[in-house]
Amino acid sequence: MKKEIHNNVTKIFYMIRYIWKYTPCYMGILLLQVLGNALWDILVGMLFLKYLFDAIEAGADYSEILYRAVIVMVYRLILILYGKWIENIYRPKANLKLHEGMQTELYQKARKLDLAYYDNPDFYNQFIWAIHESDTRAVKIMSNLSDLLSSMISLLGMSAVFLAIDWIAALAVLVSSALSFFIRIKANKIKYQKMEEMKPLIRKTDYITRVFYQGDFAKELRMGDMVKILQDDFDKSMDQKISCAKKYAPGILIVSLLSQLMTTYLFNIGIVGYLVVRYMLDSDFTLGGFSVGINATWKLFVQVSRIIDCFSRLNEDSVYADKFRTFTELEPQIKNGYEKAAKFETLEFQQVSFSYPFGNQKNREVLKNISFTIRKGEKIALVGYNGAGKTTLTKLAMRLYDVTGGSIKYNGKEIKEYDIESYRAHIGAVFQDYKIFAATVAENVAGGEYREDQNMEITEALKSAAFCNKLETLPKGIHTMLTREFDEQGVNLSGGEMQKIAIARAFAKPYDIIIMDEPSSALDPLAEYELNKVIGAAAKDKTMIFISHRLSTTRMADRIYMFDNGEIVEQGKHEDLMRLNGKYAQMFSIQAKKYHL
Ligand code: ADP
C-alpha cells in the first residue's frame, strides 16, 4: 500500500515536471489561489461568521461590523477577479504553451524511435494516448492537486477552529467524515471494477461508432453486409454493457446509501440536534459559536468529500501519468554509429536473417541466410510472391530494423558503424505504403528542407517520375496544395499520381541508391511501361533496387533475386531465369498470359 502510494506520487510528479518546464509560473499562480480560497474558508467562513453573530447578539457598534464586512467583501472581490483572470486570460495561454512544448517533445521522441515500436500494439496505444491527451492530463493533475491542497488546508484550519469552539461536535464530524471516507473508497473500488469490465465493450462500441462516421469506411459500408455484422456486434456489446451495469447496480446502491445515511443523515442531524440543545442549555455558548458549528458541520463534510474525489481522480491520473512516462522513457533500440558514410560503392548482405520483434508471428524468421552484393550502378530486382520478405530486406538495408542474424555492409563496413542520418542520406526509398502530406507538391517532393531555389530540381524530379503531364494541369504548378484538408483549392490526386509524387521524392535529392517497392502498383500496364521508361532514363547512373510483381519491370534488371518464403531461391538475369524454368519462369508466364507480353 505504502509502496503503491509512493509509486503513484512519483508518477504524478513526473508529469508535473513538464508544467514546471514549459509554464513555470503556472504552479505559483494556482498555489496563490489555493491559499486565498483556504484562508477565505477559515477566516471568513468560521472566524468572521462567529464575530458577526456574536457582535449582533451583543449589540455591538454597527460601524465596526460594517467596516469588517467591507474588508471581507473586498477580499472576496479580489479572489473573484484573480480567479477570473486565471480562468479566462492566464490558463488558456498557459495551456497552449504547454500543449506546444509537450507535443513538440513527443513528436521528436516518436521520430527517433525505431519502426519496430510501431509494430507493437501496446506502444501504439501509449503513443496515441500520449499525443492526444498528455498535456490536458497534466493540467488536470495540477488542478486536482491544487484542489486537494486547498481542501486539506481548509479542513485542517476549520477543524482547529471548530475544536476550539466545540470539541465534541468537531470530533463527531471528523469521525463521521472518516467513516464516509472509507465507504467512499469502497464505492470507488466497485466503480473501478465496473469500469474495467466495461472497457473492452466500450472499445468495441467506440470502434463501431468510428467506422460509421469516418470517411475512410464510407465506401465499404455502402457495399456488402458489413453494416449488418457491425450492427449485430454493436447490439451484442450494448447488451453486455447493460448486464454489466445491472450486475454492479445493487453493490453501488448499498454503498452509496450507507454513505449517505451514516454521514449526512444520521451524523448531521445528530450534530445539529446536539448544537441546538447546547445553545439552549449552555449560556456560555454564543449564537456565533452555534452558527459556526452548523456551518462547519456542513463544510467539513464537503471538504472531506472533495478530498476523496481528488484522491480518486489522482489515482486515475497516475495510470495515465505512468503511460506517459513509459512512452517518454522508451529508448531507440537501433543505436547510432559514429562513422560518416562516404559515397556508395558496395552493399553486401552476408547471411542475413531476420524476425520481427512483435506481432503474432514473433520470432518467425521472415528472412533466412540472405547473401548477395550490390555494386555501384547496378539495377537489382527483387521478385517473389507476397510475404516472401522483399520489403523486409529493403527495410533492413535502410536500417529501419537491425538484422537478427548475419550482417549488412556498406562500402565494406557494417552499417551499424555509421551515423544513421549520414548513412540514410545516400538512400532514397519509395515504399509501397508511401504517404502524401497535406502540403504543396514542392514540399511533398523536397520534404522539410524545401527552399525556393530548389524549384528546378523539384520539377526535374517530377519529370523523372512521369508526373509532367499532370503538373501542367495543376492550377499553381508545384505550389499547388495537395489534399483538401486545409485548402478548399487543394487537389486530390489519383492513386497512380500520388505514387509518382512519392517516386519524385527519390529523385529530388542526390541519393546514390534508390529503392522502389512496387513503384508502379497503382498504374495500368501502359502507364507502367511509360513510367519504367522514364525512371530507367532518370536512374541511368544510379544504383537501383526495385521490388516488383510486374515482371515487365524486371527485364531491365542486371540481376534478379527470386524470393520464396524468406530465402533466395533463384538468381540471375531475366534470360537465365527463364532458361532455368523454375519459379521465376512460372511467375513470368502467368503474367505474360495475362498481359499478352
Ligand atoms: P513482401 O515484400 O515479399 O511481400 P514482406 O517483407 O512485406 O514481404 O513480409 C515478409 C513477412 O513478414 C510476411 O509474412 C509478413 O506478414 C511479415 N511482416 C511484414 N511486416 C511485418 C511487421 N511489421 N511485423 C510482423 N511481421 C511482419
Outline the structure in words.
- This protein has helices at about 1-20, 25-60, 60-110, 115-120, 120-165, 165-215, 215-220, 225-280, 285-330, 390-395, 420-425, 440-445, 455-465, 470-475, 495-510, 525-540, 550-555, 575-580, 585-595; strands spanning about 345-355, 365-375, 380-385, 405-410, 415, 425-430, 515, 545, 560-565, 565-570.
- The strands form two sheets. A six-stranded mixed beta sheet has the order 6-7-8-3-9-10, with helices on both faces.
- With about 600 residues, it is an alpha/beta fold.
- The longest helix is centred in the middle third of the chain and has 56 residues, at about 225-280.
- The mean pLDDT is about 85.
- Adenosine-5'-diphosphate (ADP) binds near residues 356 and 387.
- Adenosine-5'-diphosphate binds near residues 359, 361, 386, 390 and 391.
Give the SSE layout.
Blueprint: H1 2-22, H2 25-58, H3 62-112, H4 115-118, H5 121-165, H6 167-213, H7 215-221, H8 226-281, H9 287-328, E1 346-355, E2 365-375, E3 379-384, H10 390-397, E4 405-410, E5 413-414, H11 420-424, E6 427-430, H12 441-446, H13 455-464, H14 468-473, H15 495-508, E7 513-517, H16 525-538, E8 543-547, H17 551-554, E9 559-564, E10 567-572, H18 574-580, H19 583-595
Parallel strand pairs: 3-8, 3-9, 6-7, 7-8
Antiparallel strand pairs: 1-2, 1-4, 4-5, 9-10
Helix pairs in contact: 1-5, 1-9, 2-3, 2-5, 2-9, 3-5, 5-6, 5-9, 6-8, 6-9, 8-9, 13-15, 18-19
Summarize the structure.
The protein is α/β, with parallel strands linked by helices. Helix content is 66%, strand content 10%.
